[in-house]
Amino acid sequence: MMKHTLFTPGPTNVPPEVLLAMAKPIVHHRAPDFDPIFKQACENLQYVFRTKNPVVPLTSSGTGGMEATVTSLLAPGDQAIAIEGGKFGERWGKICKAYGINCHVEKIDWSTSASPALIEKLLKDFPQAKAVFTTHCETSTGALTDIEGIARVVAKTNAVLVVDAVSSLAAEPLETDAWGVDVVVTGSQKALMLPPGMAFVSVSPKAQAMIEASPVTNFYFGLKGALKKLAENTTPWTSPVSLVVALNAAVDMIRKEGIESIWARHKRCAQAIRKGCEALGLNLYSQSPANVVVALTVPAGVEAGKVVKTMRDRFAMTITGGQEELKGKIIRIAALGYVEEFDVLSLVGALEMALRRQGYACEVGAGVSAALKSLEETMPA
Ligand code: PMP
């Protein structure tokens, strides 16, 4: 028997409750039946985003939400700042380039994350910048950025702070309103425990004013039009009805557990993975490690690609390797979304076996024992 589990930073495992909700017959997106479902979905999004601001649902993957944000806030020639600490930070710069935005891309060492002091300096160097594009959890490196500190710095300027929280929303603490984050982008297929297919974008009053003032250069991905329709409890285009129904089922589960408890569970699981892997002699790649995904450098003599392959094909557990410059150098393991503490023990056990099958010397049970010890210390009564 192969019981498949995703230990990837998206897509993630979808709970049976959510899968069943998607099997319901389709209602028409402009019929009265859909109105309460959509209203509930909007309220649910505000709950997970920790905001009273509107959260725009889009039919796309997370990148569509990023593109909608760039093209709705800025016009060609506008100045912006983007932080590139990995593949996803790099994406902000690429989207800006595609649309003729005059974006300064600040490249930082991929094993680090941007500090508030760096953002403060950049805003002094580029005082005309209208937006600062950041990444909460840089999924390609496993780094977490201090968004609270950065928000404090950006709030003092006319620029808006845009946060890619595609992988981190509902997994890491992110206080959209309390921290004063203008735009937060996330995707359905991560901690929200949904299939891929939707992006969500929260928009502060400061960002709404910028969108209102910006000449429209987009069509399908226009936040200006979407915000107007949202105020009428609808969307400009056909809603992905089944995914909206699924969103409500997923957020029902999230509300029952409580978002703070979910943040704590992700922390507990990530810590158990880190402790287990450290006991096996693996080192963390990032200097500011996130709980969304744990990135580990592979020891000499071990092939990262082979570890990923053995885990997937032999043990039915999907983990991922590194991308671009990190290909072959790291493996990435995520206990994201619908994953619980004891799943982590299976994961660490399988990882031990995969490593030993490559001739790597580690004592049987060393990783599992350390992960279990970590859970013993951190599991609530
Ligand atoms: N940003 C981050 C931080 C991500 O983790 C991802 C998905 N891995 C994306 C953006 C892109 O999202 P998508 O693949 O859904 O377009």
Task: Describe this protein's structure.
The protein has helices spanning 16-22, 34-49, 62-73, 87-98, 116-125, 147-154, 176-179, 205-213, 223-231, 241-257, 259-279, 304-314, 341-356, 366-378; strands at 5-6, 55-59, 79-84, 102-107, 131-135, 137-138, 143-144, 160-164, 183-187, 198-203, 283-284, 294-297, 317-318, 320-321, 330-333. With 381 residues, the protein is an alpha/beta fold. The radius of gyration is 21 Å and the shape is globular. The mean pLDDT is 97. The structure holds 4'-deoxy-4'-aminopyridoxal-5'-phosphate (PMP). 4'-deoxy-4'-aminopyridoxal-5'-phosphate binds next to helix 3.
* Biggest sheet features: 7 strands, mixed
How does the overall form come out from the CA principal axes? globular
Count of DSSP H/I helices: 14
Q: Report the β-strand fraction as a percent range.
A: 15-25%
Tell me briefly what this model is:
The protein has helices at 16-22, 34-49, 62-73, 87-98, 116-125, 147-154, 176-179, 205-213, 223-231, 241-257, 259-279, 304-314, 341-356, 366-378, and strands at 5-6, 55-59, 79-84, 102-107, 131-135, 137-138, 143-144, 160-164, 183-187, 198-203, 283-284, 294-297, 317-318, 320-321, 330-333.
